[in-house]
Amino acid sequence: MQWDDPESLIYAALYCDDEGEVIGLEEVQLLDAPSETRVEILLKTLSHEDWEARKQAARVLAAWGFDAGLETLEQLIDQRIDQHGVEVRHSIYGDNDVFDQLTEAVHLFQMLGESPRREEDQRRIYSKLLALYGECDFRSDLKNALARSGYTQLLPEVVAAIERALAADKVYLASQLLPVVARWSPAIAWDWTAKFWTEARLVPSPMANVAEALGEIDTDASREMLQSLSTHVDTVVRDEAAHSWEKLHRTKPE
C-alpha cells in the first residue's frame, strides 16, 4: 500500500492487493494471510464516521474471522444502516440489498474453521435480520445462510417473516424463505406451497422457490407438482424443478 492519506489507505485495505492493484472487496475477503497493517487499518475503520466505510470494513474483518467484524455487523443492523443513506441497489429490481451484504459476511464468519464458534451470537444476528424481513428487502443471502446454518430453532421466526412479507404484498420476497422451511419442516412447507402457486408470469417468479422447496418434500404429491413445474414457461422455474427432481429421484424429468 503506497498511499499516504488515511482515505486512500482505507480504500487500499478494502479493495487492493498488497501491490496496490484493485482486486475488489470480495477478493480481499478471501485473502489467506492479511497483513497486520491492513488489519490495523480496517479495525480503525470500524469507528469511521462514514457508514459505508464501517460496513465494508466489518464485512472484510468478519470474513477473516475477527470478532470485531461480527460485532460491528450486528451494531449496523441494530442502528438500521439502511436509514443512514447506505444503499446497495439491485441492478435489475432496484431493491436496497444492504442487509443481504451483511448476511453474507455473517455467513462467511460462520463458515471459517472446522468447529463453529459464537453460534449463539450468529443465531441472534440472523434473528434480527429475520425481524426486518418484509419491511426490508433481501435477495438470497439470508435464505442460503439459514438453510446451511442448521438453526432450526429459528423456524417460527422464519414463518413470521414469510407472513410479514406476504402482508406487505411482497410475494417473491416471502417465497424465498420457503426452501428454508422445507429443509427444516417439510410438512409445514407443504402447507405453504398453495399460497405461492400462481399461473401469473411474474419476474422473478415465486414458483422458482416453490420448485426448490419441493426438493425437500419427499412425497408423491410433491413429485406430481414437480412434474407439472418441469414444463413451466419460466426457465428458472423449470431448472429448479429439474434440480429438485434429481434430488428426489437421482434422474432428471423426461
Number of helices: 15
Structural class category: mainly alpha
**Shape assignment:** elongated
Mean pLDDT: 91
Biggest sheet details: none
Q: What is the terminal-to-terminal distance? A: 56 Å
* Strand residue percentage: under 5%
- Following the backbone from N to C, one meets helices and strands in this order, namely HHHHHHHHHHHHHHH
Poorly predicted parts: none
Fraction of helical residues: 55-70%
> How large is the radius of gyration?
20 Å
What's the number of extended β-strand segments? 0
Task: Give me a quick take on this structure.
The chain is an all-alpha fold and 254 residues long.
Write structural notes for this entry.
The longest helix has 15 residues, at 235-249. This protein is mainly alpha-helical and 254 residues long. Helix 4 (51-63) packs across helix 5, helix 5 (67-78) runs parallel beside helix 7 (119-132) and helix 12 packs antiparallel against helix 13. The chain is built from 15 helices and no strands. The radius of gyration is 20 Å and the shape is elongated. The mean pLDDT is 91. The protein has helices spanning 6-15, 25-29, 36-45, 51-63, 67-78, 98-111, 119-132, 141-149, 155-167, 171-175, 178-184, 186-196, 207-214, 220-229, 235-249.
